[in-house]
Amino acid sequence: FELRKPPSIDDARCALRDLQLLLKPPRHDKTGYEDPKLPPILKERLMLMKNFLWLYTDTHRSERTQPANLLGGCWGKAADQTARNAGKVKGDHLSRCLRSWSKAYINDRAVLPLRKLPQKYSRIDDEDLAAELKLHLQSIGKYVRAQDLVDYLSIPENQAHLGFEKLISLRTAQRWM
Predict the structure, then answer these.
(1) Which residues contact 26 (CB under 8 A, 6 or more apart)?
(2) 33 forms bridges with which residues in the sheet?
(3) Which residues contact 74 (CB under 8 A, 6 or more apart)?
(4) Nearest Cα to 52, choosing from 30, 85, 28, 25?
(5) H or E element: which one contains 116?
(6) 32 falls in which pLDDT band (50, 70, 90)?
(7) 41: Cβ contacts below 8 Å, ≥ 6 apart
(8) Fewest C-beta in 10 Å: which of 27, 120, 124, 159?
(9) Among 151, 136, 134, 146, residue whose Cα is nearest residue 170
């Protein structure tokens, strides 16, 4: 029963504040926010967790400004609604993941909902890498070549940022495209 028990509202509020700071870290001069430089998949999952925790912790009832949040304090219903808001018609899996990710984050702030990769995989199967490469190719324009990928990944800064230790061949870039 303890594993299924929802966290307290106060613990969830603290985690929500920390999530908001993680997603939008303030600048040192307090004039805005810095880019958190998070991978796109992780950022999306953290945003979903933030929306879920906001729904769960919003228990204030105000008669004049807004209708009452009927999901405040309801762990499962708030997760289901967040999954539906994310565009998942039958969001049972996302709802379970949100509850699992959020509970783990509430218990330990170092636990982030990272994507687990299989033991053997192609680097292009990594969604974050694929998104980064697609973004670069879109910035080139309408006509792209496999050689553009080879050139982009031959720059040392890009290799370090994307975690490549050696260059990719033209044939590998052609397979990826």
Answers:
(1) 32, 33, 34
(2) 26
(3) 56
(4) 85
(5) none
(6) confident
(7) 115, 127, 128, 131
(8) 120
(9) 146
pLDDT at residue 87 is higher than 80: yes
Structure token digits, residue 85: 């808001």
Which tokens in the block code for residue 171?
């044939």
Per-residue confidence (pLDDT) for residue 54, from 0 to 100 = 92
What the block records as the tokens of 34 is 């810095």
The DSSP line for 2-52 is TTTSPPPHHHHHHHHHHHHHHHSPBPTTSSSB------HHHHHHHHHHHHH
Both tokens assigned to 32: 């805005």
Whether the predicted pLDDT of 1 surpasses 60: no
Structure tokens at 159: 């290799």
- Decide: pTM greater than 0.70: no
What count of residues does the chain have? 177
